[in-house]
Design brief:
Blueprint lengths: L1 H36 L15 E9 L4 H12 L4 E4 L1 H6 L1 H9 L3 E4 L12 H17 L18 H9 L9 E2 L9 H11 L5 E5 L6 H16 L3 E2 L2 H4 L2
Parallel strand pairs: 1-2, 1-5, 1-6, 2-3, 4-5
Bound molecules: zinc ion.
Length: 241
C-alpha cells in the first residue's frame, strides 16, 4: 500500500516537473516569436528631425499594373518615394524599374526571392542581397549604397551584421499602413497612415504581391491630407541626410 502511494507521488512529482518544463518552453517560444517579429529590433525606423518631412516606401514591386498606377499618383503630386524591389520581379519587369528610376525615386533592395531571411546561412543572405543589387546596378542605379529591407522586416543579428558589413542601411519603418490586411478599405489604410505619421516618419506600403488598388487610392489621400497639414515628401536617403 505504502509502495503504491510512493509510486503515485513520484509520478505526480515528475508530472509537475514536466508541466513546469512545458510552461517554460511555451513562454520561451512565445518570447522568441515576439522578439523576432518586433519591427524595432534593428535598423532605421525614422529620421530624427523636427522638420515636417515624411518618406513613403513601397515594398514587393515592380508589379504591374499597380506600380504604374502608383507612379501616376506620385507624378500628379510631383513627389518622390522609395521602392524596395524584389530581384525576381525586377527580372520580369525591367521597364518599370527604368520608369521609376527616371522619375527620380529611390530604388532599394528587398531581397531576390522574398524568402524569410531569419536564421539562414550567410551564403544565402549574401546571394539574396547581391543578386538584387546587381540587377539594380545593371538598370542604372548609381547610388553608392543601396538600402536594404528584409522580407516582412524579419531579421536577426547575423543579417543585421552582414548588411552593416556591406555598408548598407537597413531600413525599417515607424508607420505601418496595414495595406496587406484584406478587410481594410483604401480610406482605412490612408487614415491609419495619416493618424500615425509625424516628422521624420518612414511609412511602409506595398505596390506588389496582390491587388494593390487600395494602396494606390490610399496614397492619393495620404499625400493630399498630409500636405494640407504642412508635410512634404522625400526619399528615404534624402530624409536621412
Ligand atoms: Zn515584402
Amino acid at each position: 500500500m505504502l509502495d503504491r502511494m510512493r509510486a503515485t507521488m513520484k509520478i505526480a512529482k515528475n508530472f509537475k516537473k514536466f508541466l513546469l518544463f512545458a510552461l517554460a518552453l511555451f513562454f520561451a517560444t512565445t518570447l522568441l516569436i515576439k522578439v523576432t517579429k518586433f519591427h524595432n529590433y534593428f535598423g532605421i525606423n525614422r529620421a530624427d528631425t523636427s522638420e515636417k518631412v515624411i518618406a513613403l516606401t513601397y515594398d514587393d514591386g515592380p508589379y504591374p499594373p499597380y506600380t504604374n498606377q502608383l507612379l501616376d499618383v506620385l507624378d500628379s503630386h510631383k513627389i518622390q518615394a522609395t521602392f524596395f524591389l524584389i530581384g525576381r520581379n525586377i527580372e520580369q519587369h525591367p521597364e518599370i524599374v527604368k520608369t521609376i528610376l527616371a522619375r527620380g525615386d529611390e530604388l532599394a533592395n528587398h531581397s531576390y526571392s522574398h524568402k524569410d531571411m531569419m536564421f539562414k546561412s550567410d551564403d544565402f543572405l549574401v546571394s539574396e542581397i547581391e543578386k538584387t543589387d546587381k540587377l539594380l546596378r545593371d538598370l542604372g542605379v548609381k547610388q553608392e549604397s543601396i538600402s536594404f529591407r528584409p522580407p516582412w522586416g524579419r531579421r536577426f543579428l547575423g543579417l543585421s551584421y552582414l548588411v552593416a558589413q556591406k555598408h548598407k542601411k537597413l531600413i525599417m519603418w515607424d508607420v505601418d499602413s496595414y495595406d496587406y490586411e484584406k478587410q481594410l478599405s483604401a480610406d482605412d489604410i490612408a487614415n491609419q497612415v495619416i493618424k500615425n505619421a509625424r516628422s521624420g516618419s518612414i511609412v511602409v506600403m506595398h505596390d506588389g504581391g496582390g491587388d494593390r488598388s487600395k494602396t494606390v487610392a490610399a496614397t492619393d489621400k495620404i499625400v493630399k491630407v498630409l500636405r494640407s497639414k504642412g508635410y512634404s515628401f522625400k526619399t528615404v536617403s534624402e530624409l536621412l541626410k
